[in-house]
Specification:
about 475 residues, mainly alpha, Amino acid/polyamine transporter I, 19 helices, about 0% strand, globular
Length: about 475
């Protein structure tokens, strides 16, 4: 649990701190692992060339994602406040402009927007848990499963109800507090989801198409190696890889900074960040290795988009012994994983309202939760009633996804790492990272030069 041992802290968190390093790793991994890995990663990889995209994604995770995550954690722990207050407090301490607080504002707002559509997709997992329990997928063909998906998302009343139910449960968990909500949940849900994913991987290996799925994920086309025009990897793909790295690691949206505020001083930021990155990336790769062989085995298109997981996995479950049980448990656990992410996404905004306006957690959770629920109905209707209303990047869902994934998260990540690398003094960052040796110097090199240049380069291509 989060213990209120303020005397052990250089600056006490208003919300206490994590009980152990492992709890923090599970909490941050829980915030990252969920729909971003199992729902989003496979279809984004499928839409952007498979192996070439995965390679760029892994580079983005190591070279950009890892230093940004470390920067978020150290800012959060040093500030011991919500992202907005932490940025304002530290900028004052470092003798810089208080306008840096807007970085926290961007992160908090990004979390709200992401959760608005994340809750819609997470609501689908609740609906599919019910469908699975009813046995609707048993022995179903690929065409029947696809038709079931289309019928489901085209009914805004059903998907709207699922979205409402998911947000109500999220508000309930957050209102209870991080101690009784998130920490207890992640200890069970993250390991359980991993075990079930491994079981599904075993089924996928025996599908007869595992080699094809493996090749799709890890083979880089010769055209990309030669930088030929016919390479499926475009600058949009590179931008998608960076956005996916930010999305799956939960960076740039205030979550990691808020969680870092609860991290004890004696816990190594470097080792915990490494553990989270390895766990999160491993589960994303595991999801791809599980899903793509099943996609090819059933004649589906790996670039099918947001509905890929909701068509591929039910099809696989429907053909296996005990499919009703495993399918129901899987979608329930996926809902749980989505809740850990949802709680992390809403936490920065709730913490800000609690600290800024002296509201109780219950009041702040209800206030922010209703706002997110309302915005989310735009995404609910994007798959049915407003599916033909397209502007800029597409539907309302497409636009919110594009704005957060490709602009807000990279922008927030860029500003966070610039603040940590250039505004905060060497003494301040070394004090939090607990080292002045080679590892610290390598982080500083990435934070001051390589990561910002990489993010700037990709952002420039996004807005031109």
């Amino acid at each position: 649990m989060l213990n209120n041992q303020a005397g052990e802290e250089k600056r006490a968190s208003l919300h206490g701190h994590w009980s152990s390093k492992m709890t923090f790793i599970l909490a941050v991994t829980g915030s990252a692992v969920g729909l971003g890995n199992i729902w989003k990663f496979p279809y984004v990889a499928g839409q952007n060339g498979g192996g070439a995209f995965v390679l760029v994604y892994l580079i983005c995770v190591v070279v950009i994602g890892m230093p940004v995550m470390m920067s978020e954690i150290l800012i959060g722990r040093r500030g011991r406040r919500n992202p907005v207050a932490a940025m304002e407090l530290l900028s004052k301490e470092e003798g810089s402009s208080r306008h840096w607080r807007w970085v926290g504002v961007i992160g908090v707002f990004a979390g709200i927007l992401i959760l608005s559509y994340y809750s819609v997709i997470a609501g689908w997992t609740l609906g599919y848990a019910v469908k699975s329990a009813s046995g609707v997928f048993v022995g179903a063909s690929a065409e029947a499963v696809s038709a079931e998906y289309q019928n489901f998302v085209s009914d805004w009343r059903i998907t709207g109800f699922c979205h409402t139910l998911f947000m109500a449960l999220t508000i309930f968990f957050v209102a209870r507090g991080v101690e009784r909500g998130l920490e207890q949940a992640v200890r069970f849900m993250v390991p359980a989801l991993l075990i079930l994913m491994l079981a599904l991987l075993g089924y996928s290996i025996n599908s007869g198409y595992f080699a094809q799925g493996l090749s799709f994920m890890f083979s880089v086309p010769e055209s990309c190696m030669a930088l030929a025009p016919e390479c499926p990897l475009t600058w949009d793909s590179v931008l998608a890889a960076l956005g996916q790295a930010f999305f799956t690691l939960s960076i740039g949206m205030g979550c990691i900074m808020a969680y870092g505020a609860y991290l004890p001083d004696e816990t190594s930021i470097t080792s915990t960040s490494s553990a989270v990155v390895i766990a999160d990336t491993g589960i994303a790769i595991l999801a791809g290795l599980t899903i793509f062989p099943l996609v090819f085995a059933n004649g589906l298109d790996p670039a099918d988009g947001p509905g890929l997981v909701f068509q591929t996995l039910p099809l696989a479950f429907g053909q296996m012994a005990g499919g009703i049980f495993f399918s129901t448990i899987f979608f329930i656990l996926l809902s749980f994983a989505a809740w850990t992410s949802a709680i992390a996404l809403i936490e920065p905004a709730v913490a800000w309202v609690v600290e800024r306006f002296s509201k109780t957690r219950a009041q702040a959770s209800l206030l922010i939760g209703i706002l997110i629920w309302f915005i989310g109905f735009g995404s609910v209707l994007s798959f049915n009633a407003l599916a033909n209303m397209e502007f800029l990047a597409g539907t309302i869902f497409d636009n919110v996804n594009y704005l957060t994934d490709k602009i807000m998260l990279p922008l927030a990540g860029l500003l966070i790492i610039l603040f940590a690398g250039w505004v905060m003094s060497r003494n301040s960052t070394a004090d939090e990272l607990g080292s002045t040796g080679r590892l610290y110097n390598f982080w500083r090199l990435l934070a001051r030069f390589i990561a910002p240049i990489g993010i700037l380069f990709v952002l420039a291509n996004a807005i031109t």
